[in-house]
Amino acid sequence: MGRWIEAADGVxxxxxxxxxxxxxxxxxxxxxxxxxxxxxxxxxxxxxxxVREVTPLPWQVVLTxxxxxxxxxxxxxxxxxxxxxxxxxxxxVANGEQQREKWARHYRxxxxxxxxxxxxxVRLVLPDYLVDDYAQLDLxxxxxxxxxxxxAHSDHDLVVHVPEAGAVFAGDLVEEGAPPQFxxxxxxxxxxxxxxxxxxxxxxxxxxxxxxxxxxxxRGQRAELVLVAELCREVAAxxxxxxxxxxxxxxxxxxxLAALAR
Length: 262
Ligand SMILES: [Zn+2]
Known about the structure:
Blueprint: E1 2-8, E2 11-16, E3 22-27, E4 32-35, H1 41-54, E5 59-62, H2 68-71, E6 82-85, H3 86-109, H4 113-120, E7 129-131, E8 134-138, E9 143-147, E10 159-162, E11 167-175, H5 190-199, E12 204-209, H6 215-237, H7 242-248, H8 257-260
Parallel strand pairs: 4-5, 5-6, 6-7, 11-12
Antiparallel strand pairs: 1-2, 2-3, 3-4, 8-9, 9-10, 10-11
The structure holds zinc ion (ZN).
Zinc ion binds at residues 65, 67, 153, 172, 181.
């Protein structure tokens, strides 16, 4: 079960204990937009029912990126327009099945057969409204901008900006309560994506995991990511070994050797 936080007028975040996940809802005059759908059909269905307690308006979905916890609940909303970056769709086509098996196995090994079964049963819904760098949605008197700021947490992160509410959903470009995740990341490019988020000048930043934050928090995370980028450059230049870089990282547990090679 999740709980809603109203971050701004008609801009809501639903918080979950599982993975400390945060998904979003933007309510316009004629339609609403769901930002990420949770990690399986059960989570998606819970979210869909919770949205219906807020608004009866028709919905669209936007996926911030392809990671299972953000994209695997989409079938609960189908049929509807599903927006994502072009490479998000490509990644779900190429790696969706593999991701499903990996995470089902992960939860089974943790002894959580219920979640494992739910993930194993997911029917992947592919995004059909594809974004390269920018798309603008009109929810009826409410504009929403979808923007891609280059590779960072993945090679296809979308941020969802609601200009008149001063709010931006950052996906996993920003994490509160846990370190950023580098599994599919491009550490050297990440700080400049955060610069682009900061340049939106939105006082409310909504991370893909954790509680809403402000620009000050994003600047702090950016400073740590600059350090990580510097370590990656030193590894590439041969002045540090990968092991030394991991040890000096502000996120030694998360900065993987694979990410350092990118
Ligand atoms: Zn992610």
